[in-house]
Each structure stands twice: as structure tokens, then as C-alpha cells.
Design goal:
By secondary structure, the chain is an alpha/beta fold. It has 2 domains: about 15-80, Chemotaxis Receptor Methyltransferase Cher, domain 1, CATH 1.10.155.10; about 90-285, Vaccinia Virus protein VP39 (Rossmann fold, 3-Layer(aba) Sandwich), CATH 3.40.50. Helices cover about 40% and strands about 20% of the residues. It has a 7-stranded mixed beta sheet with strand order 6-2-1-7-8-10-9, covered by helices on one side. Helix 2 crosses helix 4 (about 70-80). It is globular and about 60 Å long. The structure holds S-adenosylmethionine. S-adenosylmethionine binds near residues 28, 123, 129, 214 and 232. It comes from Magnetospirillum molischianum DSM 120.
């Protein structure tokens, strides 16, 4: 077995602090000292891709060489955590079909019938979350004639958005998709050496992807969303940033609409116009 040789190239404390401030100001993600090893590992890949000598060299170009603007997208792509799964935190999807949809459709303007139901996945990563929504709503449409829906899916990270738009996933990732849904909505690749699945075009067309930084002062999104999923992104922000983001999201949710956050995230204790409905589910009051 080959001996493990630990990397010798490290970020100075000053550079890590400067990078941390830059990243937190730009995308809200906190960079406490425990993340230093992770950031170093990811940025070493950038150092290699740019053919630079060291992390020190990388930081010099970033902070002193005026290359911050052009490198920002790559830097954010390198430091964001994009872990996601189909049917992640499945209770939300159960709640959506069992409670949220019947409730929304009992409202006078009947979203889904009189106009398309609008759902926003506000930190969508490579698309497993919005495509899960597409399958769940596709199933709902089978039980209700004329049911229409649109899913908006945004993220700050450009490389995940490119993957999301393609809608092609390693077959392993589709393990959590129930068999009947997989049969109806996923198509397997012919290449059995690299097995992948792809969502059927009819569902892909219902998901509209776009770039959006939750730190931006305004979101260029409709203000009458019926449901917003903002899951497993807030956890990387500090409390004040979480509150600011949540209050902006509330402006895009119509009264009576639902907000889903990750099960390890909290909205409680804030003065937002939200009523707690059940675990990690809130209603716009
Ligand atoms: C761990 S993934 C969660 C994906 C999905 N919501 C889920 O729960 O499976 C977090 C996502 O948040 C995105 N993100 C982080 N900061 C963001 C910001 N300021 N604006 C928009 N998206 C952000 C990341 O790029 C990443 O794709």
C-alpha cells in the first residue's frame, strides 16, 4: 500500500480569514476555523487547474492581482456544499400531497386549476429536489385532470445548475425514487458501463432553472409562490443572515402558502410572518 503523504501546501491564517470574509459577505456561508482543511482541499484543486504553484500564489492573485472578479464564480463553486438526494427528507413530499395541495386547492383562486401551481426550490443544487417535486406533482396531475404546475429552481453555484439543467444522474442516485415513479418518469441510459438516468422531457420542461444568490437584496422571482422549499442552505449562514433571507423569501410566498426548511434548520423565535405547521413546515400568515 502506498504511504499517505499529507499535503504541505496550506493557507496562512491571514489568507483564510480574508477568504472567509469574502465568502461570507458574498454568499452568506460561514467559514469558521474548522472549515480550513476542507477549503484548502477544494482550493488545491483550483491551484492545480490554474497551474499555479501554491495556495499562497492563488491568494496573491485573488487579493493583490485583481483577479477576484473573474475567479469569484469558481471560488463559490469550490466552497459550496451541494449534497442532495431524490426524496430527501421525504416527510416534506408526503406533507405536500396529503395536506398542502388539498389546502391550497380549497382556496378561492385554486392554484393548479385556475392558474398553474408555483413552487420554488430556492437552493436546488444539481436538481434532485426540484425533480422530486416534478415527479410528485406529476403523480398529483394523474389524479386530477387539468392540474398544472411550474417549478422554479435556483442556486448560487453555476456548475450545479449546469448539471441540473441536463437532468442526468448516476443511476445510484435514483435508488430513493419509488419503483412506479422511476418507471414512469426516469429513462435509463443505454451505456451500461456508466449507468445513468434522465428525467423524461415532459417533466424537465416544468422545471425552470436560474442563478440566484440568496444574499442579493432583491430576488427576481414572482411574489405569489404557493410553496417554497429552502432546505439545507440556511444552516451554513449565521442567525442574522438566516433571518434576512427568510424575510425576503416570505415576500415571495403568498398568504396561505407553505415554506419548507431543512429538518435541522430553525425558523422559530423569529418575528417573521410565518406560522409553524409541523416539523420544518411553515405557513405564510
Ligand atoms: C446542501 S445543498 C441543498 C440542496 C437541496 N436543497 C437539498 O436539501 O437537498 C445547499 C445548496 O445551497 C446553495 N447555496 C449556498 N449558498 C447560497 C446562496 N447564498 N444563494 C443560493 N444558493 C446557495 C449551494 O450552492 C448548494 O447547492
Amino acid at each position: 500500500m502506498e504511504e499517505y503523504v499529507p499535503p504541505t501546501d496550506h493557507l496562512s491564517d491571514r489568507d483564510f480569514r480574508r477568504l472567509g470574509e469574502l465568502i461570507q459577505n458574498y454568499c452568506g456561508i460561514r467559514m469558521p476555523p474548522v472549515k480550513k482543511t476542507m477549503v484548502e482541499g477544494r482550493l488545491r484543486r483550483r491551484v492545480r487547474a490554474l497551474d499555479l504553484a501554491s495556495l499562497d500564489d492563488y491568494c496573491r492573485r485573488l487579493f493583490d492581482g485583481g483577479e477576484l472578479g473573474s475567479e469569484m464564480v469558481e471560488l463559490i463553486d469550490a466552497v459550496t456544499t451541494n449534497k442532495t438526494e431524490f426524496f430527501r427528507e421525504i416527510e416534506h413530499f408526503r406533507f405536500l400531497t396529503a395536506k398542502a395541495l388539498p389546502h391550497l386547492q380549497s382556496q378561492p383562486h385554486r392554484p393548479g386549476r385556475d392558474r398553474p401551481l408555483k413552487i420554488w426550490s430556492a437552493a436546488c443544487s444539481i436538481g434532485a429536489e426540484p425533480y422530486t417535486l416534478a415527479m410528485v406533482l406529476g403523480e398529483h396531475a394523474r389524479t386530477m385532470r387539468d392540474f398544472r404546475f411550474d417549478i422554479y429552481a435556483t442556486d448560487i453555484c453555476t456548475d450545479v445548475l449546469q448539471k441540473a439543467k441536463l437532468g442526468i444522474f448516476p443511476e445510484d442516485m435514483a435508488r430513493e425514487v419509488p419503483n412506479d415513479l422511476a418507471k414512469r418518469y426516469l429513462r435509463r441510459s443505454r451505456d451500461r458501463a456508466r449507468p445513468t438516468v434522465r428525467l423524461i422531457p415532459d417533466l424537465r420542461q416544468r422545471v425552470h432553472f436560474g442563478h440566484l444568490n440568496l444574499m442579493d437584496p432583491e430576488y427576481p422571482m414572482d411574489t405569489d409562490m404557493d410553496v417554497i422549499f429552502c432546505r439545507n442552505a440556511l444552516i451554513y449562514f449565521d442567525k442574522a443572515t438566516q433571518n434576512t433571507v427568510l424575510s425576503k423569501l416570505c415576500r415571495h410566498l403568498r398568504p396561505g402558502g407553505f415554506l419548507m426548511v431543512g429538518h435541522s434548520e430553525s425558523v422559530l423565535g423569529s418575528s417573521l410572518p410565518l406560522t409553524h405547521v409541523t416539523s420544518a413546515v411553515f405557513m405564510r400568515s
